[in-house]
Amino acid sequence: MRIGLFTDTYYPEINGVANSTYMLRNALEAMGHTVYVITSRVSGTESSPEEHIYRIPSIKPYLVKDRHLALVVEPYWKHKGKQMELDVIHTQTEFTVGMLGMRIAQKFGIPLVHSYHTMYEDYTHYFHVPKSEKLKPVVRMLSAKFCNYADGVIVPTDKVRKKLHSYKVYRDVYVVPTGLDPAKYGNCDANEVERLRARYGLESGYTLLYIGRLAEEKNIDQVIDHYKKLEDAGEDVNLLIVGDGPVRGKLEKQARDLRIRNIAFTGAVPWEEIQNYYALGDLFVSASTSETQGLTYNEALASGLPILVRRDPCLEQVLREGENGMGFVGEEEFLKGYRAIRALPEGLAPEAYTDRDFAQEVLAVYKEISSEAMRHRA
């Protein structure tokens, strides 16, 4: 098949949508398909042409400053879309690049699949406007409108499927979890891991690890509060926080104010090296409730780490309490969960739903929707 992936964010950017789209493209190409990526141009990608990847000049909008919006010149890109002779268009965003994909699909009668990645109603605080909470109904309406333009919608968990139905999305919704490259997470650089361990003071003790964006909705402040109780109880523990984001300074101040001894913030790290950071941990922790699937939880499990995470419907197919980790709500359950995990046998077998599994399920959706579209045209 000739497939067009339309996304506002893509490698080398580091986030769930960029990583998912990057893995999907690589897995589909490995299966023999031709994949085009249409995305935003960001700093560092201006002079690095890549086959079948088209980067559109972009800006950082005032209302959401840590994201890029492509400046689409529609006539040019519609012509480009015709030249690609696509069998299916798969949008990964509801914003400018996604709207471009939708319009190309409509103009040339190409089946349109949309992946709904983000629970936008959990992120309205990023819009720098008064009373941003009042934007939630607008976000729901716009999400439903875009999804209903598609011929079918892919979501990573049943939690998101149910949410879209509550928004009045009437298109078929397919639950397809994002896969991982299992070889990546079992292939760390031992020398680099030891260098990082020394750099962050992790030579001894049991290390709790968070990897992800440092943002309000991730509730990392709660993890720090709960971790402080472990230190106060005399546990020989470390807390390593990997990633960057708008609340990093606030979290570092919290750690100083609480006089936490064994905590380190790495800042942003290259995605190509992330397996080395998972290798630093003994236990992955998160208090987020805004996940659509918790991709980092799966990465941790693929690295052989147990998980201690805030209970959430998106984890129904990920967390098996007492086997690969524990769920919690509040400090008491966090501490109980920590102790229960410490009692588990060491050395969990790495587990992963692979990138090839992911691509095969997505491909099955493409074929089903394409067949339906052909029947309707007949």
Automatic annotation (TrEMBL):
Segments forming domain Glycosyltransferase subfamily 4-like N-terminal: 14-183
EC number: 2.4.1.-
Domain Glycosyl transferase family positions: 196-327
Enzyme class, broadest EC rank: transferase
Record keywords: Glycosyltransferase, Transferase
SUPFAM superfamilies given in the database record: UDP-Glycosyltransferase/glycogen phosphorylase (SSF53756)
Entry keyword annotation includes Calcium: no
Protein name listed in UniProt: GDP-mannose-dependent alpha-mannosyltransferase
Protein species of origin: Aedoeadaptatus ivorii
Lineage: Bacteria, Bacillati, Bacillota, Tissierellia, Tissierellales
Designated gene of the protein: mgtA
